[in-house]
Design brief:
324 residues; alpha+beta; 2 domains; five-stranded mixed β-sheet; two-stranded antiparallel sheet; Nucleotidyl transferase AbiEii/AbiGii toxin family protein
């Protein structure tokens, strides 16, 4: 098996070429390579097949190409069978994480205590050998990929998408036929669910700030850009028109957030367009807080990416208020 990562000089050269051609920082090109390797083990031809679904922000960039910003987490939904006990589910998640680390020769560190019970989950940082001095970027794990694995109830519609490492854009190395650079297909969650998850997170952030000026994870700024991009996706807008499915997903997102991610704020009666996260009104302190976190997320964008203003994002959400 010929792997690009086994040749340090060729790997470094490919990272530089791909960075130049994509407009992403070299540290993102290197991390993207490892994101793809983790996905290949779990979801590729020799992975877990239809039992796993790729979800989250990275599915928007790698699978649907809806966003021109770097996303680093590998977020995987595992489909539960009737016969699986809670303990069996917990063991499988641990085995999956261990398999990825072992197959790729990575060190695994627990990111948080595993979630137990009916819908178990876990998060691990897979530490890879980096050859770059990475600049400090808020919300980015230096030299590691965060792998999130979990079960959940409800509907999780998905479709097949193709995953291609950014390093493949360095045609000089692609011609060598490295096995770790080949494209592969995975099942990816439809963007409509990811949109509603991000709207829920942002609404919770805005509502918390209004209630108590609570400091939140600075990573939320990136969700604004993602929401803007997904709301420009015709297929997602069409799916939002199914109000029965919409209500089911909103409730499921609320349940999961409340049980596993520190809480959730109920969707406003008038929809997400009425959330303080999208309609801060005359609250200049809240507006400044949102602007600051959003602008910091710009460091994740590709060089030529169009980065909309926060006001443009508020406007797009308002235009789709009947669907949200």
């Amino acid at each position: 098996m010929t792997l690009l990562r086994d040749d340090g000089d060729d790997f470094d050269g490919a990272v530089g070429l791909a960075a130049e051609r994509t407009g992403y920082q070299p540290v993102f090109i290197e991390k993207d390579y490892w994101v793809c390797q983790v996905l290949r083990v779990l979801c590729g031809p020799d992975g877990y097949g239809a039992d796993v679904v790729f979800k989250g922000g990275t599915s928007l960039s790698k699978g649907y190409e809806l966003i021109d910003r770097f996303s680093e987490d590998v977020d995987i939904l595992v489909q539960k069978t009737e016969a699986q006990s809670r303990k069996e589910c917990e063991r499988l998640l641990e085995q999956m994480s261990t398999r990825v680390a072992g197959q790729l020769g990575l060190t695994s560190n627990e990111a948080r205590p595993p979630g137990r019970g009916k819908w178990p989950n876990r998060a691990d940082i897979l530490v890879y050998p980096t050859r770059l001095e990475a600049p400090a970027i808020e919300g980015i794990i230096a030299g590691g990929v965060q792998l999130e694995l979990g079960y959940a109830g409800g509907e999780w519609p998905s479709q097949g998408v193709e995953i291609t490492p950014l390093l493949l854009l360095a045609q000089e190395v692609a011609a060598e036929g490295y096995e770790d650079l080949g494209s592969f297909r995975v099942r990816a969650l439809l963007p409509v669910r990811t949109l509603l998850e991000k709207l829920s997170v942002l609404h919770h952030v805005g509502a918390q700030f209004v209630d108590s000026s609570t400091a939140n994870d600075g990573r939320f700024g990136r969700h604004y850009y993602d929401v803007f991009q997904i709301l420009g996706h015709a297929d997602t807008l069409a799916r939002l028109a199914d109000r029965e499915a919409f209500d089911g997903v909103v409730e499921d997102v609320r349940r999961i957030s409340s049980n596993h991610y520190g809480g959730s704020t109920p969707r406003p009666d008038g929809g997400y367009a009425d959330s303080p996260a999208f309609a801060p009104g005359s609250d200049s302190e809240l507006r400044g807080y949102l602007e600051d976190n959003y602008e910091r997320a710009r460091a994740l964008a590709a060089r030529d990416a169009v980065w909309p203003s926060l006001g443009s994002i508020f406007k797009r959400v308002a235009e789709q208020r009947d669907l949200l």
